[in-house]
Specification:
Blueprint (H helix, E strand, L loop, with lengths): L23 E15 L4 E10 L10 E6 L5 E4 L6 H10 L12 E4 L3 E2 L8 E4 L3 H13 L4 E2 L5 H9 L6 E7 L4 E7 L6 H4 L2 E8 L12 E8 L6 E5 L8 E3 L2 H12 L4 E4 L6 H12 L11 E5 L2 E5 L4 E4 H10 L10 H9 L8 H10 L3 H33 L3 H4 L4 H13 L4 E2 L6 H9 L13 E11 L2 H8 L32 H22 L5 H24 L9 H24 L3 E6 L2 E5 L5 H14 L6 E12 L14 E5 L4 E4 L10 H17 L2 H17 L9 E4 L12 H11 L9 E6 L6 H4 E3 L10 H19 L4 H6 L11
Parallel strand pairs: 6-19, 11-15, 13-14, 15-18
Antiparallel strand pairs: 1-2, 1-9, 2-3, 4-7, 4-8, 5-7, 9-10, 11-12, 12-13, 16-17, 20-22, 20-23, 21-22, 23-24, 24-25, 26-27, 27-28
This protein binds a DNA duplex through helix 12, helix 16 and helix 21.
Length: about 850
DNA sequence: TAATTCGCTAGACCGA
DNA sequence: TCGGTCTAGCGAA
């Protein structure tokens, strides 16, 4: 590999000799961190991929690998009761390894403390090679040493320890001859993607033949789009010459062109490139005896949990589909199916036509409709690029917080974001991180769930003038205000016992814990950012960065409680998580009590929000009440007015023992906007016609208080259904297939529909979003379920849709207005009932 | 395997 | 034909 490194001279201890040549200083954009094994020296060496240039440089700014051969892979050993020096002696005396013998490179005393122990001076044990570390961790464990942080990948270790921010600027001092890093520090300058980063998106179209395997059929078209979205290219071969299409000789040449284009980029963007495009082009290149290398190396398809990920060397692969999945998980977007057409429409408001594989085949073979295909192929790249551009600032901020590469942050779970941040800050606080739990511990944790939030049963019916109050970031603010952290739990100081949770655990008041320290910093920073954002004009580049920064903080803050209660977390703490929810329940109960004292009627509460009936009270009264509560709250806890609503409805439960349904209600604000919560309308597993009917009924009832109009509307929908003319699109029920079809115990409609489709040759795997219709053909509901695509228009069971979809969706609302099911089906009279008198 | 618990509801199945 | 129990999915916070 990099021959530059071998120019170093070593002294007898294998350490590098003082630099004689001059040291250069440069600013650059850090893209990737990794390592390689230098066999000659028997060392694992850190390498960083950096784009040189003060402001990231122009298009062809030089990008280079830099090396840090001083930084050693390491973990920590607890010295136990014996002192650190003795442990060090023992460790240094060890001869390790099976075939190839090796010794520890260095063992040194630190001032770090192991988690949950009083013993300080954990010993840092370094190795020449990562492979030595891997062997040693087992051997040392067997010898009875307690070891920590032994499973942190080397590149990640480097970023965390040096507190670098990938996809951010760094200042480097290095030897120009060897690119050896003498010093590297993060730089605060803001990265502006359009100016500082070169990104290119690409997308492949492949021939749809008999074989389905990756790489089995040829690539027939490929597109690329840059960040400005204007320089789009579409390349094909052996087909008609049309506008916007570049023709080359062969498939191999198409691959060459993509390779050439992509090698200009710092970031390569795809839509589902993790599972498809990179793997495909790699396989095709292999078949054709061609090369496909990015930055000199073939893409690697690695496993990330249950998913694949296409990893490049140095250059960062951003899969926009992974970005969308992350946004979906964190609740930032709500899109039924994350295909590129849906995303284009829902995120950017741009309709994108779907083209089917067979159309593509035909267009390519005989030129029919080829222009459409060219446009379709290019749009795929453009949309992928748009997503990346839109959300890159968010992930760059997350990278800054967690010191992880963009490749990792765009594919991370929120738990790993929290954990990476804690790993980074733990050493600062003088702690070695705790280890991940073993499977036994994980199971034990799962079997002991933590009691969660309190939800009050609401007052049923229609209500007017509602004030909604909210605790701002309830769980994080409890953590900070009560200093909740695994290491502050049940401390020895007598006076700290006053900081006792309703759960009986108490938390130290003398020393700030890791969680409150880190989260407190984030809360303060977020308030500052939000204030600054408010002052900036919307739409500008700066505003976008500010918004993304506070958003990144919000994501991490909101995940902190979940992390403490997450069975696989290093810093899992049942006591902490339990204390947080106990305090939260207490605060909401206190709010209810005090609201009663202040003569408000409490309509409903859930976790952190309180609904008050204002009756004759004014907004001023509500605000005074909030102020009073805030005076009594500790630390940075704060109750806020979320909003005022003119009308609202709560309904009884449909099943079981009755009672009023929690987590379902509809509100109308002062401007007449509806807020529908928990009802079928917001659920994807109900058909459109039921959802739309429900929304219309809620709208009519809350706006006009006119129940007879609503009843008429329902009757009309029933009539339409009976006529058999409702399009199947309105009848489709959408559900995700969460496991393999054979592994279900219960026979359910979506599983049954999936099985039938599979029998007809459709490819359906775990995670597929199924859209099915209940047809006329069969006995049970499951028997009658068929995937939408196989159902002919008009073939639907009207009775099912009336009885099991539309009526259930509206009946509980209509009942509040005095209607029965029969009234709606048979047109019972009930006229002119005006709810609002 | 990939943050948590609380809560609602459907549909299959079983026994009376 | 009913009510209870079970599995399953999804939303609220």
């Amino acid at each position: 590999m990099p021959k530059a490194v071998s120019e170093h001279k070593k002294n007898s201890k294998g350490e590098k000799e003082p630099v004689k040549g001059k040291v250069e200083m440069k600013k650059g954009l850090l893209l990737d961190a990794s390592y390689f094994d230098d066999e000659e020296k028997g060392k694992s060496i850190i390498k960083l991929f950096i784009k040189i240039g003060k402001k990231g440089g122009k298009k062809n700014a030089p990008r280079r690998w830099f090396f840090d051969s001083e930084f050693r892979p390491h973990f920590f050993v607890l010295s136990g009761k014996a002192n650190a020096e003795k442990t060090i002696k023992e460790l240094e005396g060890l001869e390790l390894g099976d075939e190839e013998k090796f010794r520890i490179f260095r063992a040194e005393k630190t001032s770090l403390r192991a988690w949950g122990r009083n013993e300080t001076n954990a010993v840092k044990v370094s190795f020449d090679k990562v492979s030595h570390l891997v062997q040693a961790r087992k051997l040392l464990k067997d010898l009875g040493f307690e070891i920590f942080e032994y499973d942190v990948p080397f590149g990640k270790r480097y970023l965390l320890d040096k507190r670098l921010n990938p996809c951010g600027f760094v200042d480097i001092e290095f030897e120009p001859a060897s690119n050896e890093i003498k010093k590297i520090t993060p730089s605060n300058e803001i990265v502006e993607p359009m100016r500082d980063i070169e990104a290119i998106a690409f997308d492949l179209e492949t021939y749809c033949g008999k074989k389905f395997a990756i790489g089995a059929e040829p690539i027939i078209m490929a597109s690329m789009a840059d960040m400005r979205e204007e320089l789009g290219r579409v390349i094909s071969y052996k087909t008609k010459k049309v506008k916007g299409l570049e023709l080359v000789e062969s498939e191999e040449k198409v691959i060459n062109e993509i390779e050439k284009g992509l090698n200009e980029a710092d970031l390569i963007v795809t839509y589902n490139g993790d599972n498809f495009d990179f793997h495909y082009v790699k396989e095709r290149a292999k078949k054709l005896g061609a090369e496909f290398k990015i930055n000199g190396v073939e893409p690697r398809i690695i496993r990330k949990g249950l998913d694949n990920a296409a990893k490049l060397s140095g250059v960062q692969h951003i899969d926009s589909y992974q970005i969308m999945r992350f946004l979906q998980r964190t609740g930032a977007i709500h899109i039924v199916k994350l295909d590129i057409e849906n995303v284009s429409e829902k995120v950017f408001g741009e309709k994108k036509e779907k083209v089917y594989p067979l159309e593509l085949n035909e267009a390519w073979e005989n030129g029919k409709g080829l222009e459409r295909m060219v446009d379709y192929n290019l749009k795929d790249s453009i949309v992928a690029m748009k997503i990346a551009k839109e959300y890159l600032p968010l992930f760059m901020e997350i990278s800054k917080l967690t010191s992880q590469t963009l490749f990792d942050t765009t594919r991370s779970a929120t738990s790993s974001m929290v954990e990476d941040l804690l790993m980074k800050e733990a050493h600062h606080k003088g702690f070695v991180a705790p280890n991940k739990p073993n499977e036994f511990e994980v199971r034990e944790r799962i079997e002991n769930p933590i009691k969660g939030a309190f939800v009050k049963e609401p007052l049923v019916g229609l209500h007017e003038n509602i004030a909604v109050l909210d605790f701002a970031s309830l769980y994080p603010s409890i953590i900070v205000s009560h200093n909740i952290s695994p290491e502050t739990l049940n401390c020895e100081h007598e006076e700290c016992k006053k900081n006792v949770s309703p759960d009986g655990t108490w938390f130290c008041k003398k020393e700030k814990g890791l969680f409150p320290e880190v989260l407190g910093g984030l809360v303060t920073e977020r308030i500052k950012l939000k204030r600054e954002y408010g002052r900036k004009k919307a739409g500008g580049e700066e505003a976008k960065v500010l918004f993304s920064s506070q958003w990144a903080l919000k994501i991490v803050l909101n995940s902190a409680y979940g992390y403490l209660a997450y069975p696989r977390a290093r810093w899992y703490s049942r006591e902490c998580a339990s204390a947080i929810t106990a305090w939260a329940r207490n605060y909401i109960h206190e709010t209810i009590r005090k609201a009663g004292e202040a003569d408000f009627e409490v309509l409903y509460t859930d976790t952190d929000s309180t609904f008050l009936l204002m009756k004759r009270k004014t907004k001023r009264d509500v605000e005074e009440f909030v102020e009073k509560i805030n005076k009594e709250l500790p630390g940075n806890m704060e109750l806020e007015v979320d909003g005022y609503y003119r009308r609202g409805i709560f309904v009884t439960r449909r099943k079981k023992e009755g009672g009023v349904a929690k987590k379902r209600y509809a509100l109308m604000d002062e401007k007449g906007n509806l807020k529908i919560v928990g009802f079928e309308y917001v659920r994807r597993d109900w058909c459109n016609i039921a959802k739309e009917t429900q929304r219309t009924v809620i709208d009519m009832v809350l706006h006009e208080g006119d129940s007879s109009k609503a009843a008429d509307y329902v009757r009309k929908v029933i009539k339409d259904l009976k006529s058999g003319k409702v399009p199947k699109k309105e009848l489709a029920i959408i559900t995700m297939l969460k496991r393999k079809v054979d592994s279900y115990d219960a026979k359910e409609p979506h599983v049954s529909a999936a099985k039938k489709a599979i029998a007809q040759g459709t490819e359906i795997e775990v995670g597929t979003i199924l859209s099915y219709v209940i047809t006329k053909n069969g006995k049970s509901i499951s028997d009658r379920a068929e995937l939408e695509e196989f159902v002919e228009e008009g073939n639907y069971d009207a009775d099912y849709y009336i009885q099991n979809q539309v009526l259930p969706a509206v009946i509980k609302i209509m009942e509040e207005l005095g209607y029965s099911k029969e009234d709606l089906i048979h047109g019972g009279k009930q006229t002119g009932l005006n709810t609002w008198g």
